[in-house]
Design goal:
This protein has 399 residues and is an alpha/beta fold. It is built from 18 helices and 13 strands. A 6-stranded mixed beta sheet has the order 8-9-10-11-13-12. It has a 5-stranded parallel beta sheet with strand order 2-3-4-1-5, sandwiched between helices. A two-stranded antiparallel sheet has the order 6-7.
């Protein structure tokens, strides 16, 4: 097992809270991480039907066997346990007593909000970041191999082929979860919807268009997208909302957490095919945005990310709000730095500083080349240096 960036924050919060809850997509490494960090605790998987039935039928007896605490995996399978855990930790609030994991964010967070508010720390473990991928024996050295292979731990740990792993993952986890939550009858329509979402990664969300193209209603498209978000398959990046006038686009952008899944859904079967694919730029932008998000949430920080676009089409792919400072990030898959890489950053900086003259605004261009440059408009960073950038402030980490 490689070390995960989240491990430090997980240990820190377990020393402060009686319960720690780790959520994230299926197969992101939650179980492996928690069992390794809390090796002294009993481990119980509620995925097993007989164990889950025991917990549902006799929650007091189930938890009574684990008075000292435990790692309870897939806690959303038996959400009623949370109320009994609440009673136990109120009576004995020793730190780090229970460690909970769950993949179904839609069910888990609702139950936790009702039962364990103020008693548990919440953390997210997303797929591997670039920093973590490098910790394996033979990490991809080529950008397009990295994007195509994706960030699922199993692919790097067991050297599985993406063509073997992603079809099974989508069928056994994504589709099963959607059918469980929404009782989807027309699975073909959902599969079409999922692929249409993949084709729109890095673009503004248009639910009416998505629904029409998939042959479903606007309301159904909204519900299905919400489940993809709750299951950590896709996420929406909100638009920059600080008052810079009325010229800003107010529609969120769609991204996927894992570019390997994105490539699979788009029918991209090799790194060379991705290299020449018309959606190469959008996939690279999704990767950059997701890497920045991972770097923050794996350190226990809120995403605090938006994007900027005005009505004239000027755009900055990611804006990070660090207190009184703003950081704009442009993602460009090309290997040669061009002058137009900096146009959106310059417009954004002018508008942001005009609205608040004392605010600091800095810019980055992450691109597909291999040279780092420090320009007046922005710092140019090659894709391979993305994990060397600090996408957080010292004040955030200290807090």
């Amino acid at each position: 097992m490689i070390s995960r960036v989240l491990e430090g924050r997980l240990r820190d919060l377990a020393a402060k809270f009686p319960v720690v809850t780790v959520t994230g997509p299926r197969q992101s490494g939650k179980t492996t991480l928690c069992r390794a960090v809390f090796a002294d605790k009993p481990y119980v998987s509620l995925e097993a039907p007989d164990v889950a039935e025991f917990a549902r039928r006799d929650p007091r007896g189930f938890l009574g066997e684990r008075q000292g605490g435990a790692v309870l995996d897939e806690i959303h399978r038996v959400p009623q346990l949370l109320s009994y855990i609440q009673t136990m930790v109120d009576e004995d609030p020793r730190r780090g007593r229970f460690v909970l994991t769950g993949s179904a964010n839609f069910a888990l967070l609702h139950s936790i909000g009702q039962s364990l508010a103020g008693r548990t720390a919440l953390l997210e473990l997303l797929p591997l970041s670039l920093e973590e991928v490098r910790r394996f024996g033979q990490p991809p050295l080529d950008l397009f191999d990295l994007l195509w292979r994706g960030s699922a731990p199993a692919l790097h740990d067991r050297n599985l082929a993406p063509a073997d792993w992603y079809p099974s993952y989508v069928a056994t986890y994504v589709e099963r979860d959607v059918r469980t939550v929404l009782n989807v009858v027309d699975l073909i329509a959902f599969q079409t919807f999922l692929r249409l979402c993949a084709g729109r990664s890095g673009q503004l969300v248009n639910l009416a268009s998505l629904g029409a193209d998939a042959g479903i209603t606007h309301a159904t498209a909204k519900a299905w997208l919400s489940v993809l978000e709750a299951g950590y398959i896709a996420w929406r990046l909100p638009p920059f909302h600080t008052n810079l006038g009325k010229r800003l686009v107010k529609t969120p952008k769609l991204h996927f957490f894992d570019t390997g899944m994105l490539c699979y859904l788009l029918g991209i079967r090799s790194p060379d095919q991705l290299r020449d694919h018309p959606l190469r730029g959008a996939i690279f932008e999704t990767w950059v945005a997701s890497e920045i998000r991972k770097s923050r949430v794996h350190r226990g920080l809120p995403a605090s990310m938006t994007f900027f676009r005005d009505r004239k089409g000027s755009e900055v792919d990611v804006v990070i709000e660090l207190g009184k400072s703003l950081v704009g990030v442009e993602a460009k898959s090309g290997q040669t730095v061009a002058g137009d890489f900096f146009a959106g950053l310059a417009i954004f900086a002018d508008l942001a500083q005009a609205a608040r003259p004392k605010r600091s605004v800095s810019g980055f261009v992450i691109y597909g080349g291999d040279q780092q440059q420090d320009r007046a408009a922005a710092r140019v960073v090659p894709w391979s240096g993305l994990d060397g950038c600090r996408w957080w402030s010292d004040e955030e980490r200290a807090g």
